[in-house]
Design a protein that fits this description.
With 212 residues, the chain is α/β, with parallel strands linked by helices. Helices cover 36% and strands 21% of the residues. It has one domain: 3-Layer(aba) Sandwich (Rossmann fold). The chain is globular and about 50 Å long. The protein binds NADP nicotinamide-adenine-dinucleotide phosphate. GO terms for molecular function: oxidoreductase activity, acting on the CH-NH group of donors, NAD or NADP as acceptor.
Length: 212
Amino acid sequence: MNVAIFGASGATGRLLTKRCFDAGHHVTALLRHPETFPLRLIVRSVPGSAFDLSAVAQTIEGADVVLSALGANSLKKEDVLERAVPQIVTAMQQKGVRRIIVLGSAGAKPDALDKQPAWRRWIVENLVYKTFLKWPVASQRSQYATLSASHLDWTMVMPPMLTNGRGRGKWRIDPDALPPNANRISREDVADFMMQQIDNPQWIGKAVYISW
Ligand SMILES: NC(=O)c1ccc[n+]([C@@H]2O[C@H](COP(=O)([O-])OP(=O)(O)OC[C@H]3O[C@@H](n4cnc5c(N)ncnc54)[C@H](OP(=O)(O)O)[C@@H]3O)[C@@H](O)[C@H]2O)c1
């Protein structure tokens, strides 16, 4: 398949890019710095920013599926998803590309903590989502709102904390809330689950929680 990927140079994006290549897909990546991208020899690079509609459209041209692992480089207000996701949706609508699988985060929806014990829900809501993760959570809520209004075949994958360790090859999926006592999962396992969604229609039009 032809896969367009955004955020390919990031910690999860690099794993996704390598997996796409290994699976035999043709990968086009939008990159702000293609010259330093370690996987530049295995992708077709489109230089540019995800805020630039023409660069985004060039990346999506001819794609069968779009993957995104975009995110800000800090916990400050950067509005990366607020600005980039509408451009990706517009370009997909213009080019007639329907399938998109994005990396989100557990804070994107208000039901995220419904299956957690009350004490943990209180701590995460009041001491995490409203304080140091305030801007990433706002960005993820924006991404969810944009995708769910898009009429595309979207899937948003929502982990809690991401780690860089080895994948376990198994995880819990829940469309309603983070599974009980879910607190982390490796980027490797999230990348594997996102790859599996390329030809799995089960979660189209859905945001799903994933955790160990
Ligand atoms: N960290 C966690 O524990 C955690 C938990 C749950 C969910 N998440 C979410 O997972 C997502 C990915 O996280 P990550 O840690 O794997 O990512 P990351 O390493 O921070 O990478 C972010 C990617 O987005 C790209 N990017 C940012 N702005 C861009 C722009 N204007 N144009 C093009 N590319 C742009 C970066 O490109 P450059 O290389 O050019 O900067 C990079 O490839 C984020 O949305 C994050 O909120 C994170």
